[in-house]
Hints:
Blueprint: H1 3-6, H2 10-21, H3 25-31, H4 44-54, H5 56-65, H6 74-80, H7 92-102, H8 107-110, E1 111-114, E2 120-121, E3 125-132, E4 137-143, H9 147-165, H10 169-174, H11 176-191, H12 193-208, E5 232-236, E6 240-242, H13 243-250, H14 255-273, E7 275-277, E8 285-288, E9 293-295, E10 301-303, H15 306-320, H16 324-334, H17 343-355, H18 367-380, H19 387-406, H20 412-429, H21 433-463, H22 476-509, H23 514-539
Antiparallel strand pairs: 1-3, 2-3, 3-4, 4-5, 6-8, 7-10, 8-9
Helix pairs in contact: 4-5, 4-6, 9-11, 14-19, 14-20, 15-16, 16-17, 17-18, 18-19, 20-21, 22-23
Amino acid sequence: MLSGFARTTERQGEIAEILLRNGWKFMRQLLLGKKVGEPELPPPTVLRQILVELGPVYVKLGQLLSTRADILPLRYTQALSALQSKVPAVDWGEMEVMIRRELPQPYGTVFAHVNPQPVAAGSIGQTYRATLTDGTPVALKVQRPGIATVIDQDVTLLRSLAALAEQTEWGQSLNLVTLVEEFSAVLLQELDFTQEAQFTRTIGANLQQSPWPEVRALRVPKVYGEFSTSRLLVLEWLEGLPLLAGYRTTAQTEGPAIARMLLRAFFQQICLDGLFHADPHPGNFFYLQDGQVALLDFGNVASFDPRTQGLITELLLALVLLEPRRCVQLTLELSESPRPNDLNRLEQDFGRLLRRYYPRSLGQVNFGQLLSDILETARQNRVRLPGSMGILARTLAYLESIGRELDPQFDLVGEMRPLMGRLLQQQFLGTDGVPTLWQTALDLRSLSLDSPRQVELLLQRVNSENLRWQVHIPDVELLQRALDTASSRLSYSVVVGAFIIGAAIIFDRGQANIQVFLGAGILLVGAMTLGFWLLFRILRPNRLR
């Protein structure tokens, strides 16, 4: 069991030393192959420190876990949400080699100048300001050398640990192997800059087709695809300041309008497009010199399939209307785990949760916190929800926080209510309602023409007594077999009783001769034989056929 983890490598030894040094008894017992039960997690601050010491990959794992209120208690998700990757910048010489190797064209024919000082250094890549040969300022996002190997090594270790932990009841209930696979997919997505480039283009194009004119003014950087690769991303340079700093210095009167615009932009991404920027922290919004607002960094993007998108949209509406029973129904439809045994408890917990918000005015409801509370309540009732739900809760919490910084009177719930009308229109009629209405009219016409004929056929079959119903009842074969067994035993019992009664009548009324005794004896022997055979078959585990 330990062979996958026990191979001695420098990285594995380092990870084991950090885990043991921080006193995580559960992990120590797990690594030593001892029997473990429900884990005793270290305090939230200790767990956060462990992830920081383990390095950037584990910091990203902590950031992912901070969105999973269906896995960890609230105090842990709050502690992990403060995790930030703080890594030293890689020397410019190494990064320049990476740029030259990745460029599809000679370095000097693409860039007139690249500033060797990074403007940002993350766990996956570093960003530089550069100028193209035609004078256009651009941003270069360059992948850190060797980071793919480090990620592959750490993910392999995480898979081994998840396989070990999933041999415990706790690990199985959380489906840790699946969680690690989700995390691995997120990291692989961030490693592939061509994916980020595609997400940037797609979300930018979607926003340009927004039904709200102010959303079409939200800037998304242009991608220079001819110079970009899986490890090098060349983007339009947008000059400005982080949104909150720029707003405070130059555009305080525009705060309410900006907050409303950002909410509509993300409402569209989540509820209409099904593809949304999953990390809208304040640093990813810029207030540009021309007064526009820009959305940056599309490395972390989440998406919903149409079914999940529809369910989440309905859940948001149910939360806006504070309908506990509908929230329970939709939560169970979204659930990735079996239905809980005690549905009444789940309904009562949701009811108590939402009643806490009833007396408040709409502006006092912290919607992001409300959605996080829903996830926490689901976790307590062992209902496992998709990871995208946690990402959605964090996204709404970020938007609400930014909105109230821009406008102290910002009311996310109140702003969402009128947007639901647009959403319901699209769900019922589609983006272009006229063809959908025509199709619906044709379907109704076809139904109205076919229905009288179908009713006539049904009545004819009823009158001719040829109508047959096909009803499927689960496990009906088992029921039929049990009835056959019971009827067979009853029949054999009647035969045995008849033999015994017949023998008694012969003895009582017959003449005392050898034929009478022989006939009565045959009946008694037959009765005894059938009786013993029936008793034997009843005691046997198999059924009579």
